[in-house]
Specification:
Radius of gyration: 12 Å
Order of helices and strands: EEEEE
Number of strands: 5
Largest sheet: 5 strands, antiparallel
Structural class: mainly beta
Strand order of the largest sheet: 1-5-4-3-2
Shape: globular
Strand content: 35-45%
Number of helices: 0
Low-confidence stretches: none
Oligomer: single chain
Length: 71
């Protein structure tokens, strides 16, 4: 059996977004600034939803794009 591998899909190291995220828009996952990610869930189709303080992001693996869906 091969060892499990963990990869970063969303977020920029050592950079964070502002609490007010009115200018947050769809972006590449690895270019998206997060504030305080706390939890995530994965839907049946593989879409990842990430709770980030006062915002929920949706990451689509097929396109590597992430966008805010709820503030």
């Amino acid at each position: 059996d091969a060892p499990l591998q963990l990869s970063t899909l969303i977020g920029v190291r050592d950079q964070s977004r502002y609490v007010d995220c009115r200018k947050c828009e769809e972006n590449q996952g690895l270019l998206t600034k997060l504030l305080h990610p706390t939890s995530l869930t994965v839907s049946n189709d593989g879409t990842i939803y990430l709770a980030d303080f006062n915002l929920i992001w949706m990451y689509q693996p097929a396109t590597s794009l992430v966008k805010p869906v709820l503030e």
